[in-house]
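> example.struct
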């Protein structure tokens, strides 16, 4: 039973980390889709999603176990 609790905790931590990294991308894409379905222009939100994806990719590339201390700029301490 303890092993299952540990696995669930690790999956939850991983999901939180991924959502924190890519959350803005998902929100912007959802807003763009909602605008398009409402008959409005969703290109602004689509561009925001693209910029957020680039930012998330840069953050993912700069973070490592040596430089990760929360949401820092990726500069090693």
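> example.seq
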């Amino acid at each position: 039973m303890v092993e299952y609790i540990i696995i669930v905790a690790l999956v939850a931590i991983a999901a939180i980390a991924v959502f924190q990294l890519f959350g803005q991308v998902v929100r912007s894409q959802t807003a763009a889709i909602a605008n398009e379905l409402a008959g409005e222009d969703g290109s602004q939100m689509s561009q925001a999603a693209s910029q957020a994806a680039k930012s998330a990719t840069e953050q993912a590339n700069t973070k490592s176990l040596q430089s990760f201390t929360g949401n820092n700029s990726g500069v090693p301490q």
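> remarks
The chain has a mean pLDDT of 79.
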